[in-house]
């Protein structure tokens, strides 16, 4: 028993260290890639729409391929986690060097990063769900999320200081070099982890995959949950390509706004994770998930009136706390709602949510490129659609 606990403690520490480094690297590369594309590559709203569409479409494709690949080599799922997460880390960091290669190289970098992240994420979820008992999941994930979010704040704080003292082009070069260095370190640490629970390989044909997916969504609880999350994701992403564009072009904000918006949101998220993690034994998963959609719904509406730095920070504190509850609860539902079929449910969820998110983002960008009133309309549509999902969650999502 002591040997088992010792192995668990070792893997837990490796997982935490990797996650901290991963968060530091991606907090930089993913937070600033749109601003980098606007400021350094000269992208407009339509091109930002294209890159955000590719971002989400790659995740959907990765989930479609990943579930069959994972089943075929499930005994080596940790190797999949390592290899594809490394692609995710390195290629996200490379986005900040697109001006050296050619501006449109950023499309390739983002696509490969997100494709790798989708497959690596499936392998990670399957491994972790077998390792952590459901009864301790909220407590453990709450604690790890706090470490991860603290690392993200540190990365963004360092980037903010760099933007204060150097010109824009030099700042982007330095922060993306930092992202690349920590990406390599994170991948190196991840290669030390081992799988504590062995799984057998399962050869799944495309026909078998569709059959299994049909069985999974034949469960009404799973089907209703997937419908709720997919529709909610669609409405969230209608203005998905516009937040940073609106800040930079309409509100005349700078990278400082983007940095401190993300930092304030992340800190509120960390506090929310801590609170909900501590209260995990006393809260209803269903009610927490449903009620979390209300503050999240108000964000796009309030954003249109948040035309100063101070208002943006306050809005992101409000937003971060709401998202902490939603993300924590969906994390638990994703791992445990479908039981042993979780890989198929997570894969299907990844496919449906990201296809609709990609469509919503591209549609929103196309509409927003016509004129300013239509750009503002995309935020209002997002507000109304998100709010309607509260009713859907209350009526159809079950307690877990």
Task: Walk me through the structure.
The chain has 15 helices and no strands. With 400 residues, it is mainly alpha-helical. It has two domains: 1-204, MFS general substrate transporter like domains (Growth Hormone, Chain: A, Up-down Bundle); 206-399, Growth Hormone, Chain: A (Up-down Bundle), CATH 1.20.1250. It is globular and about 55 Å long. The mean pLDDT is 88. The chain crosses the membrane at residues 12-33, 53-71, 78-94, 106-125, 146-166, 172-193, 225-246, 258-276, 288-305, 317-336, 343-368, 374-393. This is Permease.
> What CATH architecture of the largest domain would you give?
Up-down Bundle
CATH superfamily of the largest domain: MFS general substrate transporter like domains
How far the N terminus sits from the C terminus, by CA atoms, comes to 30 Å
CATH topology label of the largest domain? Growth Hormone, Chain: A
Spans of 5+ residues with little confidence (pLDDT < 50)?
Answer: none
Helix content: over 70%
Amount of beta strand:
under 5%
Give the topology string: H per helix, E per strand.
HHHHHHHHHHHHHHH
Tell me, what's the shape? Answer: globular
- Judged by helices, strands and strand pairing, the structural class is mainly alpha
CATH class of the largest domain, named Mainly Alpha
Q: How large is the radius of gyration?
A: 20 Å
User: For the report, how would you describe the main beta sheet?
Assistant: none
Total number of domains: 2
How many beta-strand segments? 0
């Amino acid at each position: 028993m002591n040997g088992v606990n010792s192995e668990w403690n070792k893997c837990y520490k490796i997982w935490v260290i990797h996650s901290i480094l991963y968060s530091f690297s991606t907090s930089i590369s993913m937070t600033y890639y749109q601003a980098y594309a606007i400021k350094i590559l000269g992208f407009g709203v339509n091109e930002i729409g294209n890159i955000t569409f590719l971002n989400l479409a790659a995740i959907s494709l990765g989930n479609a391929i990943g579930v069959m690949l994972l089943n075929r080599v499930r005994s080596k799922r940790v190797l999949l986690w390592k290899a594809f997460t490394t692609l995710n880390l390195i290629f996200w960091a490379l986005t900040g060097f697109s001006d050296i290669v050619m501006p449109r190289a950023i499309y390739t970098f983002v696509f490969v990063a997100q494709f790798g992240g989708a497959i690596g994420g499936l392998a990670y979820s399957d491994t972790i769900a077998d390792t952590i008992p459901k009864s301790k999941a909220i407590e453990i994930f709450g604690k790890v999320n706090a470490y991860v979010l603290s690392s993200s704040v540190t990365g963004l704080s360092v980037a903010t200081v760099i933007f204060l003292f150097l010109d824009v082009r030099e700042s982007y070069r330095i922060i993306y070099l930092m992202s690349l260095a920590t990406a390599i370190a994170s991948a190196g640490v991840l290669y030390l982890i081992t799988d504590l629970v062995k799984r057998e390989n399962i050869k799944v044909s495309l026909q078998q995959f569709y059959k299994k997916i049909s069985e999974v969504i034949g469960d009404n609880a799973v089907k209703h949950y997937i419908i709720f999350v997919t529709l909610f994701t669609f409405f969230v992403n209608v203005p998905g390509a516009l937040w940073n564009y609106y800040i930079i072009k309409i509100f005349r904000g700078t990278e400082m706004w983007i940095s401190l918006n993300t930092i304030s949101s992340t800190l509120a998220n960390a506090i929310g994770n801590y609170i909900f993690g501590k209260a995990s034994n006393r809260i209803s998963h269903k009610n927490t998930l449903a009620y979390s959609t209300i503050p999240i719904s108000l964000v796009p509406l309030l954003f249109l009136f948040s035309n100063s730095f101070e208002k943006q920070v306050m809005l992101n504190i409000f937003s971060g706390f709401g998202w902490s509850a939603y993300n924590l609860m969906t994390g638990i539902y994703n791992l445990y709602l479908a039981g042993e079929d979780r890989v198929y449910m997570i894969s299907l969820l990844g496919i449906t949510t990201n296809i609709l998110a990609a469509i919503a983002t591209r549609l929103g960008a196309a509409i927003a490129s016509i004129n300013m009133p239509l750009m503002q309309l995309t935020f209002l549509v997002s507000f109304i659609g998100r709010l309607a999902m509260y009713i859907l969650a209350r009526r159809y999502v079950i307690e877990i």
